Amino acid sequence: MSSDDLLIRPDDSTQHKVSGGAEAARALPSNIEAEAAFLGAVLIDNKVIEELQIPIRPDHFFEPVHQRIFDRAQTLIERNSLATPVTLKPYFEADEALGQLGGTTYLARLTADGQGLLNPRELASQIYDLALLRELVSVGRNLVEGALDTSEALAPMDQIAEAEADLFKVAEGATTGSQETDFRTASLAALKMAEAAMNSDGGLSGKTSGLASIDEKTAGLHESDLIILAGRPGMGKTSLATNIAFNCAEAHLQHQSEGGPFNYGGPVAFFSLEMSADQLATRILAEQAEITSENLRSGKITREEFQKLSFASQKLAELPLFIDDTPALTIAALRTRARRLKRRHDIGLIVVDYLQLLQGSGRSQDNRVNEISEISRGLKTLAKELNVPVIALSQLSRAVEQREDKRPMLSDLRESGSIEQDADMVWFIYRADYYHEASRPDFPGAESSADVQEKYRIWEERYLELRNKATLIVAKQRHGSTGNVPLHFQAEITKFTSPSKRDYSEWGEG
What we know:
This protein is of the alpha/beta class. The protein folds into two domains: about 5-180, Orthogonal Bundle (DNAb Helicase, Chain A), CATH 1.10.860; about 205-430 and about 490-495, P-loop containing nucleotide triphosphate hydrolases (Rossmann fold, 3-Layer(aba) Sandwich), CATH 3.40.50.300. About 50% of the residues lie in helices and about 10% in strands. It contains 21 helices and eleven strands. The strands form two sheets. The protein has a nine-stranded mixed beta sheet, sandwiched between helices. A two-stranded antiparallel sheet has the order 1-2. Strand 10 (about 485-490) and strand 11 form a beta hairpin. Helix 8 packs antiparallel against helix 9 and helix 20 (about 430-440) packs antiparallel against helix 21 (about 450-465). The model is unreliable at about 1-25, about 175-180 and about 505-510 (pLDDT under 50).
């Protein structure tokens, strides 16, 4: 087909130019002939679309008429109807733009020589690549325009972060600018989620935490959700986070080896702002080998324990768990690093330990409340942008310690109410044995009075009831009910597990 048969209207030609500064305007990357040949192949053999490995969309075509032809052909094929020049004709008889190209006879001309059938995949690949190049031109133009703007309202680091976000979208094959989702697409996604929950043993519709009692309450860690895991120091926030990270990564590894319709795990990115990577790795290794971190660091382990350690190390070597221990990260830098990990390893879960150690932009650092608000909004935006659950650990205010009832509440979230507002779920870790331990009376001697001995006996009896019990308080959940989740906590190896008992009323009461 000759280029004379594919006339571009003057108006569209103007729209498809980009400014080159002092140079003459240059046309955006495109190949109209390749688009026409590919459309011809589709209209001759509708199976061409089904066999494509590249996700071609209407907006990947440069010529607007081609966009509409491909869109309508796709719709017909999805309805199990034939898409041919004849079946498309009624939809384009009133199309003025197509009229300028010869009217509905243009549809027949697309299929005239059938050259596109020789290699439709290569044509589709070229159409897709050229669309990405046009996106890059758009990103570059926006970056140049932003950099030339010297107003005080714009900061260079913000522009860099925005440009990186736009480049991430291009790398993912998305178009710059948001795309609306029709209800049909959204409802199909909801049905797929319901099917996953129905087919899973634990009613999971998201990523697994690896802890049955938590999965039972939350139905898993949902895509685009921000989960705040909060607690006072010593409650085991980092331990629970590392347990969940390991379990999610292990579930992904298991799915890769065994297969199955749904993958309830995923590669995990763990941003550790408090602990170094080797400290975190030591903790995870100790958890899986069931050896105390103290004995592991000091070398006080038996030969049998060393064998368990060696086995756990081999198991962890294949684990898709990526640790970033860069200190004092800004929220913008964290989002940049997360995008790179998503692009390279298709991350399915992000863990941040912990929120208050992140930094905001320079503009908000004079007000800590505003800075925390910026950070929590940035984490929620990251979860939506990458479409993965984000677990962010958070400190609680000292108000907990000043109350007789030590159970945390939403008002205890430190420094900002926006954390509660931005979060889809808020979890609190509470261990009654931690506070009961603090009230331990002196051990009675042989000469101690009966009252002293009885006091210690009562304390010890209660301690044995509470020992190794923890409660995950689900204080907020957009997708379901709130309530308490019972957990076992082995303090020696900092490991959480789900108890077989499901008594929510008495578990962990202090």
